[in-house]
Amino acid sequence: MSKTLILTDRAITGPATQVIDDAAVLVDGGVIAAVGRAAELDPSVDISVPRLRCPGATVMPGLIDCHVHLAFDAGPDPLRTVAHADPHKLAAAMAERAQQMLAAGVTTVRDLGDRDALTVALRESIASATVSGPRILAATTPLTSPGGHCGFLGGEVATDDEIRTQIARNAKAGADLIKVMASGGALTPTGPRMWEPQFTADRLRVVVDEASRHGLRVAAHAHGTDTIAECVAAGVRTLEHCSWRTADGIVYDRAVARSIVENDVAVCRCVSGDWRLFLEQLGPGRAEAMTKVIQDMRADGVRFIAGTDAGVPGARFGDYAGMLEFFASLGFTHAEILDMATVDAAEALGLTDTGALAPGLRADLIVLDGDPLSELDALRRIRHVFAAGRQLSL
Ligand SMILES: [Zn+2]
């Protein structure tokens, strides 16, 4: 790979309050070699290096989707589809979905549950540049209780020993992290209800301890208010959904929120790009309760990271910007939203080499028309995507 000098009206280097006007970013192979003002950088870079001149544009870190399911097809019944899919066809479909995400500016995805560790194979193909796509962090098979949420993926565990065995199996398959279905979920109506726990507090600790013995972090699917508290106490690193459900509706617990903040646990409050339809289906009362707890968490200092849950019904691949607009509709500033999608996401995922523009980091970056700090819609006008320095022109 060769060098490219990208010249734009501005660079958002990350966090989003850090902006350079008339910016230049030098990409050298797979990494960022320099970031600065064009007036200084342009004359210092050899004339033979190609210039990518993008007037009116912003360059910023590539986006990170912290919650996807590449094995699911976003159709009405992804479970059945994934269970019956031919592995070769499924692998091809997953590669196609990964490319859709890359075209939307997503240069890193965290896959939180697949079949047969197919994401690990795709991760390797992308890493070796056999196919193009975002970098993948793969959870492989999620741990769940017998008959529990997404048990069809093969991760049902009933005892401490079974937990240890499944985690060892995932680690051997190449998992980058462990996903535990700590509470029930909507996709599995025959399992526990969404607010009901699937594991005891002790068992959640076994999951976290065993994962950490393998050097892996834990992401917990947690809808129930009690389950959220137990996951934080057990030491999970990210809470997926975190919707504060109880048998009596949504109940926010400020003391638990405080422990989320104190333990530096990030919340991935997944919504799809089609969130307006989702809110409509919930009805005004429940939609308001659902959004109110997000605002409560924000007011209490909880750190959010961005995820679409792409692959579940209605959550299409490649509508990342739509998901971010949901947070704008709740009053989050554009700078906060961009950080959720970049620096904060990278940090929560334990990635120290992406999520910002700085010398030495991976060249994961996007060039878009306009300025997303003043107009979020600019994220729908992506001109160029670089993933580990490899350019995708749109
Ligand atoms: Zn999910």
From TrEMBL:
Where is the chain membrane-spanning? none
Which InterPro entries does its entry note?
Amidohydro-rel, Metal-dep_hydrolase_composite, Metal_Hydrolase, Metallo-dep_Hydrolase, OTAase-like
Which SUPFAM superfamilies does the record match to this protein?
Composite domain of metallo-dependent hydrolases, Metallo-dependent hydrolases
Pfam families for this protein: Amidohydro_1
Q: Which domain of life is it from?
A: Bacteria
Which segments constitute the Amidohydrolase-related domain? Answer: 58-391
PANTHER family, sorted: ALPHA-D-RIBOSE 1-METHYLPHOSPHONATE 5-TRIPHOSPHATE DIPHOSPHATASE
> What protein is this chain from?
Amidohydrolase family protein
